[in-house]
Specification:
It contains two helices and six strands; from the N terminus they run ββββαββα. The chain is 23% helix and 17% strand. It has one domain (2-101). The strands form three sheets. A two-stranded antiparallel ribbon has the order 1-2. The termini are far apart.
């Protein structure tokens, strides 16, 4: 989520799933979804492990994804901080692919 001033100037950006504030000088990156939604690499890693590796997230199937704003008939990872925020399997995989392609990110898909 982006917090802005009335003139549109960015004040801060935080992960919609854990609330961590993005540090532009730090090493943790964020993936942006539709309408400014954000997921940090830590949450993406946890979501990837839960939904892609361990085949979890089926109980949230069909709910609206915070990242793509779509209701998908597929497993979703639910935020441990804000239960209304979920990320679908498609967005998890797209985020993982984008980060892996960025060699500077150093991010790798977690494995079991």
């Amino acid at each position: 989520m982006h917090e802005t001033r009335p003139d549109g100037t960015l004040l801060r950006s935080t992960c919609d799933f854990c609330g961590k504030e993005w540090d532009p000088h730090g090493t943790d990156l964020m993936i942006e979804g539709h309408q400014g939604s954000l997921i940090c690499t830590r949450c993406l890693s946890i979501a990837y492990l839960d939904v892609s590796v361990h085949r979890g997230g089926f109980e949230h199937q069909g709910s609206k994804c915070t990242m793509c704003i779509e209701e998908r008939d597929q497993p979703q990872w639910q935020s441990p901080v804000n239960e209304a925020n979920r990320v679908c399997l498609r967005c998890i995989k797209q985020g993982a692919t984008a980060l892996e392609k960025d060699e500077e990110s150093g991010w790798k898909r977690p494995s079991a």
